[in-house]
Amino acid sequence: MIEVQDLALAAGKFRIDHLHLSLPEEAFNILLGPTGSGKTLILESIIGLRKFQRGRIVIDGQEVQNLPPEKRGISYVPQDLALFPHLTVEENLLYGLRAKKKFRGNSDPHLNHLITALKIENLLSRYPQGLSGGEKQRVALGRALAPSPRLLLLDEPLTALDPAMKSEIQQLLISLHRSLSFTALHVTHDLDEAYLLGERIHVLIDGKLEQSGRREEVFLHPQTIAVARFLGLRNLFSARVLRFDEGERSVSAWVWDREVIIPSDHAAGHLTVGEEVILYLRPEEVMILRPDKPVRESLRRNILAGKIETILDRGNHRWVLFRPAGLEVYLEINLPNYVFRNLDLKEGQEIRVAMRRESFWIIPTK
Amino acid sequence: MRKKGEERYINFEKTAIFAALALFLFYVVLIMALLTFFEEKGFLEVLLSPDTLFSIRLSLMTATLAMLLAVAVALPAAYALSRLNFPGKKLVDTFLELPMIMSPVALGAALLIFFNTKVGNIIQEKGILFVFEFPGIILAQFATIAGLATRLMKTTLDEISPRYEAVARSLGASAWGAFLGVTFPLAFRGLLSAMILCWAKAVGEFGATVTLAGTMAFKTETMPVAIFMALASADIPKTTILILILTGIGLAALYAVRLVEKRPQIV
Known about the structure:
heterodimer, A: alpha+beta, CATH 2.40.50.100, 2 domains, 34% strand, B: 267 residues, MetI-like fold, globular
């Protein structure tokens, strides 16, 4: 386990305080947050490039915050990769092993495995200048992994790549992680990349670690409004807690001038009656009812009638903006293209939508 | 037919090129003027005369020592100014530019006055004699070029991303190891050209040297001092020859800088 405990640091006016971060052994961790949220500051603190006011960095039970960077056993791939331009690819790869006096000749099985896995056998005698973006990425990963670090830190290294190359390197990262099982902390603001690579996601917003957890937990069930907004969650509505039903294991909330019942395990944190909360449901979980078909019992409670305001073709799905009659709110609905075609929807059309109670989630506002 | 804007741009280019050529011509005329007083017969005689040879030797030796001393201080100072944060950094940075804008005579006078203070006296009595002595020339040249050396080396280091060192450190290199193994080789050409420029400036240094070390023949008479002395005694042919020699050394140094900077980083 690698832990950042009670970290406090300041950079200009920006502050991070009481930050705790736990990186489980051999997991691919993602530090996810918008630009300017302090991700790189945390990374630099872990490596030892930045002094901080308070805090501990513990790797396998050993406190390393007072050690110089070279004694921490942490490898680092910066955004610009920083391949040494005066050294060949091979010399770049061996830099760490040589610096640590761990170079055991070219027959080192770990090194050979890396070179094969990264497909850089043919590049060894070349200099970084002549390499393509993807080749540079692979060399930088190899250089970082060659000394078998206790932790691999990646600071948005894929940002500058075109989509095809990015996807290739992402696949490579996944397969490398499977075969070498290193602990990684990958910094990014890219949601797709975070979802694809991350086993555990740590969401950092404005210097505050808003949520840490398994990928699905974080992406499907944000615990705070800041995380929900950053993850691009749509359909957030102000609501008020009405009552709890212990027997039914449910929470009632007042929203859209009506009572909505939500399973109690869909509510984050401890709620009290009368508390203002945010209620959300994912756009793909809103169902459009066909006028000619009977409505299932489970859907009957939460039905809204209204009008389609806008329809947009988003390529892999249609996005429908729905305005319930008599309410000052909009609902966003994502429809798979085949469903859209079957329903034959048009802008301005009157429709009815339904939501299952399991589709609702509650986020506290405090 | 050319568009109006295009024409204006070409005029602009022509003006810029004309300025460059005019400046070049200005210096060529100056050197040509020297040649009108140049007497071929006397050239070898003046060049090989013991006092000229002494001046050349003295200039080259003191400039080299002053440059090495300046680099020894300027390189770590440039590193600190380029990479590290410390209280008073801006103030230090500003002060280092002072010798570049301060008159060399003023700098020499300040040194001379310093050696007349109590501390200065103690240094002279218990340590090294500077005033009107060989070490005085080195100190005067050092004072003139140390700030410049720091500025040039800082510019070179500024161009090299500190991330190289950061990565090298994370890979297991010590602070020294990362500097020597990564930053230094990457900065080498820039540092070398800074050294050559500072050396050439030290060779041509006059004001501070003459004020602190005086004009004693066979003792503190560097090339520029010799030029001044020859001119003062109205020996125009000797003055001309000495200037040509000094100009030759300077041009060779500048050409060396171009060679160093021209070479591609990686062959």
